[in-house]
Design brief:
With 296 residues, the chain is of the alpha+beta class. The chain folds into 2 domains: 2-52 and 160-294, no CATH class; 58-153, Alpha-Beta Plaits, CATH 3.30.70. It is built from 10 helices and 4 strands; from the N terminus they run H-H-E-H-E-H-H-E-H-E-H-H-H-H. The chain has helices at 2-17, 19-55, 69-80, 93-103, 108-116, 135-143, 155-197, 199-207, 212-248, 262-290; strands at 59-63, 85-91, 124-129, 148-152. A 4-stranded antiparallel sheet has the order 2-3-1-4. Helix 2 runs antiparallel to helix 7 (155-197) and helix 2 runs antiparallel to helix 10 (262-290). It starts with a helix and ends in a 6-residue tail after the last helix.
Length: 296
């Protein structure tokens, strides 16, 4: 217990002894992890909004005119039971007519045709996929379903939305990995400078019989503390910025929502803190491994 207490005291002493260098390392970790955590939060905002946009993208199955009420109800129940389907609802001829009047409000020729033939539009089922990736499966199933006359979907819009989501997620992870590597390198450089500043003291400790790990551990703790403090500042900054954005940016269009689940912030914030500590330990280990004063 005495040794553990000594190691923590040494680590804290190292932090205070090289306050400016340590502050620079903490700020560097803070910037790196702020960008990393910020990309994760931004990625979640994009994911949430993508799902919201997907709710408005439905597959339309136009039904045959000779479909009875019972057959239509059975078909709707069957489609609703598919695992790829989140929701399905029925649109009657009257509902389709009212919808068309709104859609073609500026098209006099089309309005004239609709008014003369109010039963022109077929009944339909509007199908919402559980996941945007599943829309092509639903289209294929509907095309082979008896009673379905025609299937229509916003293929290009859905493909573009999926491509945007996947591309942004890939970019976020590449950026997170790159920034994480930068944080580790900065901590390693700081610990290397601390070891160099205390090289004579370390040599004396080795001469009087101090074990290698007894000398190394305070530097590992120092790196872990730098990573923890930098990570804690990053989490506090990003969470505060996200909450302020939600409170202040209320004039954004309805289709953009900056609010995300607090559970996500807690989970990802905890991971960022753990990553900060891990980055500090890895950076310290790398510095210890290459420094000749502390080689085994």
């Amino acid at each position: 217990m005495t040794r553990v207490s000594y190691m923590f005291k040494e680590a804290i002493s190292n932090l205070s002894r090289n306050a400016l260098v340590v502050l620079g390392a903490i700020l560097a970790v803070f910037i790196s992890l702020t960008l990393t955590f910020g990309t994760l939060v931004f990625g979640e905002v994009v994911r949430v909004n993508t799902l919201r946009w997907a709710e408005d993208v439905r597959v339309i199955a136009f039904l045959q005119d000779d479909m009875t009420v019972e057959a239509t109800a059975q078909l709707q129940a069957e489609v609703a039971s598919w695992p790829q389907v989140e929701d399905v609802f029925y649109v009657s001829k009257a509902d389709a007519y009212e919808e068309a009047l709104i859609l073609f409000a500026n098209n006099d020729a089309m309005l004239s045709v609709l008014e003369q033939n109010p039963d022109l539009l077929p009944t339909s089922l509007r199908v919402q996929p559980a996941d945007p990736d599943d829309y092509d499966i639903i289209v294929a199933l509907l095309k082979t379903t008896p009673g379905v006359q025609k299937v229509q979907s916003a293929d290009a819009a859905i493909d573009a939305m999926i491509a945007l989501r996947d591309g942004l997620q890939l970019m976020f992870w590449i950026l997170a990995v790159a920034l994480g590597a930068a944080a580790i390198a900065l901590i390693a450089n700081t610990i290397h400078m601390a070891i160099y500043a205390r090289r004579e003291e370390i040599e004396i400790m080795r001469l009087v019989g101090a074990s290698n790990w007894f000398v190394r551990t305070p530097f590992l703790i120092e790196g872990a503390l730098e990573g923890f403090f930098g990570g804690a500042l990053a989490v506090a900054f990003v969470v505060t910025a996200q909450q302020l954005a939600v409170d202040r940016l209320q004039d954004l269009p309805d289709w953009i929502n900056l609010a995300i689940d607090n559970n996500f912030l807690v989970r990802q914030g905890a991971l960022v803190l753990l990553f900060g500590i891990a980055a500090g330990l890895i950076g310290s280990s790398l510095s210890l491994a290459v420094h000749r004063t502390l080689r085994s």
